[in-house]
Amino acid sequence: MSAARRTPLATALRGWGGLLGIALLALALLVVAPAVLSDFRLGNLGKYCCWAIAAVGIGLAWGRGGMLVMGQGVFFGIGGYAMAMHLKLEAAGPGNVPDFMQLYGDGTMPGWWEPFRSGAFTLVAIVVLPALVALVLGYAILKRRVRGAYFAILNQALAVTFATLLVATIKQTGGFNGLNSFPTFFGYNLYDPVNKQMIYSIAAGLLIACLLVVWHLGRSRFGELLVATRDAEERVRFLGHDPANIKLVAFVAAAVMASIGGAMFAPIAGIISPSDVNAAASILLIAGVALGGRASLLGPALGAIAVGYGQSALSESFPNHWSYFQGALFIVVILLIPAGLASLPPRLWAALPRRGRTRKAATA
Amino acid sequence: MSRGRDYLEVRGLTVDFDGFKAVDGVDLTLLQGRLHFLIGPNGAGKTTLVDALTGLVPGTGLARYGAHDLLGLKPHRIVRAGVGRTFQTATVFEELSVLQNLDIAGGVHRRAWQLALPRRGVPAYVDDALDAIGLGDLRDRPAGVLAHGQKQWLEIGMLLVQDARVMLLDEPVAGMSAEEREATGELLQRIGRERTIVVIEHDMEFVRRFADTVTVMHAGRVLTEGTVAEVQADERVQEVYLGRTTDAVGVDPEAVAAEAAGEGA
């Protein structure tokens, strides 16, 4: 019985250390950043937070679930466009048609735009729509036991298709230009710095909320089962579970998170366009997750913020060469630290005080 | 109480790999409360038989357990119906602790939504299994550091947790020391009273020591069945094990050789 009570220190640290990490990140994003950053920089950080929200979901699906979700831009786009459509309708005013439709088309609005006049409908759609799409797609893909590179390619193809579709439907979705210029966000003037800061805080808060969800899932039996499925899918079958269902839950959760990220991205960036949701954008999300450490709790979020920051900083200095840095970064990470930056502190920790810990364990 | 009532009935089970019949019309009745051993030379179809019963390879015929025909079920449904198996190489989750390995096998005791909750305490069925396999002292160690034999015990413990009424064990004592074999045999006798246990085995010493019923397979068919003494006295069994197999079941010697080469590892 005494053995029963003794929780290993490492397990306790992993559980509550994660919560501590989230608390520190919350402090940095919600208290420190608004105090020290300019409005412009804070807006940029808000964009990175949106990518980070999607990245947290990728960490769940890829890092814990082993599904290389190379097409998260699709779900980022579903949320982004849903929100942008609402904001365009809000800008147009009741009964009116968004400006670009008069510009490119004959001034009539497709019927499926109409429900997005309602803010409540839009908010529900941002969560439900990607969940439904992911459920149908995931069911079809995962039940057929498509995995590995085939799964990744399929996802990537979806992102390409989605972006192509958007570009081709200029009269309905703004085409290549996407949807932009949103003066208000649920009635709040978006040119007011106070409101900008509020929207930033919502995005950062949602990021923290998603991290809490993933933290909880990691502790749950589902989390253990998901990692077990990643490592030995066939074995899980003989525990009496259908691995496809377990992966499906993670896939849907990741899709919803990507959609929420996209929904906040539109008002913060002031635009959502095919280039924000295409294959390249999807890979950029993956790169951030890989950099941070896909299987860790905070790694995906921090990695996505770092990649976003790097993109801004480097593209300010070398506007045309950022993509080379991005590629080089990806190669370096895969070669040198395949488990991402998050794997470095534990490795250092394991290298340093091991002697002290084993002595303690021996006397216990 | 219900000793002897529960059984698994196999009739005309055939597994056909592109014309090659790895299992060819096998009839078996496996009763609760006895230790069944399945023996036979390499390539006899023992593992394929278990694979078919657990949904890993498609088979034709009938494998009735309770109200289910196992041959029509998916692997996870077969587990839920109460039929579990182990593999020749232990496949525990190496990074999870012994306790977590047992706990993760407890899906049959939980509703889907309960997966969203963290583990709190140790469920009684996990504690019981831990006691039965005698790994209580190692409960918090990662399964990856266990000795080979301990991993096999852990797998048997996982079957206990998932409430397997029928256990199909593929060479559980391979690579074990003599003491470990003895302990394993006693464990199987203990848990076998209320269960139907089938063990694939090569080690005749172990078979002699613990088998209640022995089924000898050869070239995909059941050669003979009976107690250890009966089986040992059977001339055809001796021939099969000595390699003079031609007349035993009327098969082509080249086919046997090809089969042995293909599946002989």
Question: Please, could you describe this protein's structure?
Answer:
The complex is a heterodimer of chains A (364) and B (265). Chain A is mainly α and 364 residues long. Helices cover 75% and strands 2% of the residues of chain A. Chain A has one domain. In chain A, helix 4 packs parallel to helix 12 (243-269) and helix 14 (279-292) packs across helix 16. The longest helix of chain A has 28 residues, at 9-36. Mean pLDDT of chain A is 89; it is low at 1-7 and 359-364. Chain B has helices at 46-53, 75-80, 98-104, 124-133, 148-161, 178-192, 204-210, 228-233, 235-242, 253-263; strands at 7-17, 20-31, 35-39, 60-65, 68-69, 83-85, 166-170, 196-200, 213-218, 221-226. In chain B, helix 3 (98-104) packs parallel to helix 5 and helix 4 (124-133) runs antiparallel to helix 5 (148-161). Chain B is globular. Chain B is α/β, with parallel strands linked by helices. Chain B is built from 10 helices and 10 strands. Chain B has one domain: 3-Layer(aba) Sandwich (Rossmann fold), CATH 3.40.50.300. The interface between A and B is medium-sized, with 23 and 32 residues.
